[in-house]
Amino acid sequence: MSGRLGHTRPRALVFAVISRLFLVKRFTLTKVLSLGIAICVVFLLFLSYSVPFFKFSVPYVAPHPLEIKCHVNQVSHNTLKQMVTNHLSSASLRIVNKVLVLVETQYSRLGQDIVAILEANRMKYKVEPSGKALPYLTHNDKGKYAVIVFENIDAYVNMDKWNRQLLDKYCKEYNVGMIIFAQSKSDSILSAQVQDFPVFTHANIAVKNFEINPDSDILRVTRSGEIWTGNLPGEDWTVFVTNHSTYKPLAWAKMQTMEDFIEDVEEARHSVILQDLGSYDGIRRILFGNGFKLWLHRMLFLDSLSYLSHGMMSISLERYILIDIDDIFVGRKGIRMKPDDVKALVSAQERIQQHVEGFRFNLGFSGKYYRSGTYEENRGDEVLLDHRYKFWWFGHMWSHSQPHLLENVSAVVDEMRLNKQFAKVVCTSTVDPAPATAWSTFDHIST
C-alpha cells in the first residue's frame, strides 16, 4: 500500500501543478502571457546557440551557361574592321567640329538629353533657343557648325522666313546636315504632312519590334542584323510615311495593334527614323520619331552626327574592357567558388576572347583566406590556381585589412610582404596598393 502511494505521489504532484496553473480561478491572462513569453525566450535561445552548428544540406545546382545569340557573333574580328563605315570627306575642311543645338527652352528634357550625350562624348556644342535670331554661322569663310540639331520639328518648319532661308543657305553652301526630332505631344495632330516636304507623319503611336536598316551608310557604332523585340517604351512615337526617293528608312517598327487589321504582319513596318539623302532640296537630314527612351537611339544619334559631319564628329571605335573579380578567396563558407565555377569562369573568358583580343579577368586576392572554405570550395581554390596563368592578378592586403586603418607603415609593409610571398609561391601578380601611405612601402617589399 505504501509502495503504491509512493509511486503515485509524483503524478499527483504534476497534476496539482497543472491544475493550479490552468484550472483554478486564480489563473489569469497575465500568467498566460508570462508563460508564452518564457517559452518564446527559451526557444529563441535554443535557436541562437544551436542552429549555427547544424549543417543544412542544400544541393548545389550549377547555373546554366548564358547563351548569347547575335548576328555579330558570326562575324570575325577582321571582317568587322572592314565593315566599319568611314564618313570622312573633303567637305569637312570647310566646317568646324561643333554642333548647334536649337531647343524650345533650356529646361526641356530632350534638349538636356542631347547635351548630356554630347558632353559624355566630349563634343563641342552651342545651345540656342529656336525662337530667337540665329547665332553667327560662319567665320572667315568657314562654317562654325558641322551639324544642326532641332529638338522639335515644328521649330524648324515654322521658323520665320528670314532665319529659315539663312539656315538652309548655310547648310547647302557648307554641306551641313540636320538632325530633327519629331517626338509627339499630347496636342499633336495625329496625321499630317510635314510642311514643305513630301513626307507624312502619324503621331502618338505605340510601336514594337525595332529593326535597323542593314543597308544604311549611316551605321558606324551601331550594328544591324537583329530585331529589338517587344513593345518600345512610350506611346508617343511618330512614324513617317513617304514615297519620295530622297527618303530612306534608317529604322523600322511595327504598330502594336496591327495584327488586328492586317493579315501579313511582316509587311506592316513603318519608318521611325528617316534619312533624307538631300536630293529634294540639297540638305541632308535625319528625322527621329522619338527621343532617347530607347537606348538604341543614342547610338544611332552618334552615328548620325558622324555621317552628317563628314566624319569630323566620329567617336573612336577602340574600347578597353577590364573586369575585376574582387576578393577571390575572401568569401565565407557556402558561397565560395567550386571546381565547376572555376571551369565556367575559364569558359566565359574564352568566349569573350573570341571577340575581345587579349581579354583576361582581373582577380584580386588576399592570400590569408586561400583554402578557408569547405572541402569542395578548397578544391575550387586549387583548381583556380591550376589555371592561374590564364588570368591577371592584383594583390590586396594579406588579411584583407584596410591600409589606412593600420597602426603604422610597418604594419602595411608586413601585410603586403605576406601577400607578395603568397603570390611568389602560387601565382604571378602585380601589387596594386591604393592608399597614398602605401607608396612609401615599395622599397621595403621589393627586396
SS strand fraction: 15-25%
Instruction: List segments where confidence is low: pLDDT < 50 over at least 5 consecutive residues.
Output: 1-6, 52-57, 429-443
Q: What summary fits the major beta sheet? A: 9 strands, mixed
What fraction, in percent, of the residue positions are helical?
Answer: 25-40%
Structural class: alpha/beta
Average pLDDT level: 82
* Helix and strand sequence: HHHEHEEHHEEEEEEEEEHEHEHEHEH
If you had to describe this structure to a student in words, what would you say it looks like?
With 447 residues, the protein is an alpha/beta fold. It is 32% helix and 17% strand. The chain is built from eleven helices and 16 strands. The strands form three sheets. It has a nine-stranded mixed sheet. Helix 9 links the parallel strand 14 and strand 15. Helix 8 packs parallel to helix 9. The longest helix has 22 residues. The termini are far apart. The N terminus is likely disordered.
Features:
11 helices; 16 strands; 17% strand; alpha/beta; nine-stranded mixed beta sheet
